[in-house]
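Subject line: Sequence and fold of a protein, written as structure tokens
Body of memo: The sequence and its backbone structure tokens, given next.
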Amino acid sequence: MNFRIRVPEIRLIGPDGSQMGQFQTRDALRKAEDFGLDLVEISPTARPPVCKIMDYGKYKYDLAKRDHEAKKHQAVVRIKELRLRPATDDHDVQTKIRHARRFLEDGDKARMTIQFRGREMAHKELGHKLMSKILAELSDIGVAEQPARMEGRALSVLIGPIPHGGKNAKA
């Protein structure tokens, strides 16, 4: 920008976007001062580098505003984790299912994890049976994004909301 441009010759673009041609850097700086604006290097890798006469403060403001608008429209997906054990009672499992249902309705993902301890590892089929029961209960609102798999001593599955199946669809 302005006096930090060290190349002797540049291609200049005017404040209205028109090509002004090739200039010596000091002449281009003088033209920018005549307009009351800044000389900003746009493409430093081009030969000769491309510079534009613009209001640098306004340019930075517009970039920040554009970034803010892009962030506003970004969807943030959170993963909520629910932990169980293979010997968890039915009522407690139903409570966890209600929590998962609420998370999925809010548009979040739910990770159901069944933690095995000690000799429970010998009966992994109980964990798989419990997991299939949970997935069946949540099938109307969520879908498993990948099949249930063992990760160390835990069996886990990531459940995502069915598109157009949460609060947004009701609105």
In short: Residues 56-72 form the longest helix (17 residues). The chain has two domains: 2-69, 79-170. Residues 165-171 have pLDDT under 50 and may be disordered. The radius of gyration is 30 Å.
